[in-house]
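Morning, I've got a small favour to ask if you have a moment. The fold is given in discrete form, as structure tokens running alongside the sequence. I'd be grateful if you could look everything over and explain what you see. No rush at all, and the record is pasted right below.
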Amino acid sequence: KSDFSEGVLVGYRWNDAKQTEPAFPFGYGLTYTSFEFSDLDASCATDGKGGAGVRLTVSNTGAREGAAVPQVYVGFAGLQPVVRQLRAFRKVTLKPGTKTEVAFGLTEDDWKFYDETAQAWKSATGLGQSVVVSVGTSSGNISWSKTITCLPPSPAARL
């Protein structure tokens, strides 16, 4: 018999919940250049489907070509004890001195969590919970966060 007493607190989720700093956080990577994230924004979708969009500009500020991997995490009260969960990432390769806009689409499924008491999946937006959208280069290097409160999907959008 195995005892999985850590529950959902595995990997970066455990580090976040226990506020520990690992030597190499989840998503950590080395590069021979440097990058800057700017013009970050997150906003609720207006299509009635309960999602959101996240966008940012990634600039290669170094002297060599390289790849950056912006990561999008979301957090909300229903996730407790988990602080946040990875929901999107994208590898972007840029030449020195260039930049590109990166956009992510989040859906209502990205706000869902399993409620053990109710034995059912629930949506943070359906419960009126705000969502903290964060962007970083790894789970240990979150450089930007914004709290958004999106409406749940309209009944027509669920059809």
The chain has a mean pLDDT of 91. The CA atoms of residues 63 and 78 lie 43 Å apart. The radius of gyration is 17 Å. The longest helix spans residues 12-18.
